[in-house]
Amino acid sequence: MFEFGNRRVRPSLESMIVEELRGVLKGIPVGAEITEKQAADLLGTLEYFLPLHLALDFPEWKWESLDGFYFVKAEKTGGGSARFLGTCILIYDQTMAPFFLELALTESGDSLASLRLFWGEKGEGTFGVVRPGWGTSGATKLMLKMLYQLDSIQWAYLIERDFLQ
After folding, report:
1. What is the pTM of this model?
2. What SS3 state is found at 135?
3. Using DSSP, how many helices (H) and how many strands (E) does the chain show?
């Protein structure tokens, strides 16, 4: 919440993403690695922001959220853009799923220009994805697969948003 005159204003998730991404990217060169610690606030907001966007296209996401992101690789890809690859925890059953996320700000840095998300590897069960338990050998294998065999992952969910249209 922010104070605005005598009113309390709740910022939108999108404006929070913009502010937090801008903060993560500030002062680091293109190609620089981004750590989970540097992106902690952004990752916390993505726990709510990404499920909302998934729910726009996939009704099964209406009541789901994410909890905890772990990077395999994250980097600044442009002046106002970043790419994140890793796993995240599904709140429903505390299992892990892979994600690949690209976010880009407008040239002015005032708003989101685009979002591209690949989430979950096709498989059995809830959401039709492979979901090893958090902290298991299956989760470790998934991280290694993402690092060394990313092209072999058949993504279950894909979202591409161009906010400039």
Report:
1. 0.90
2. coil
3. 3, 7
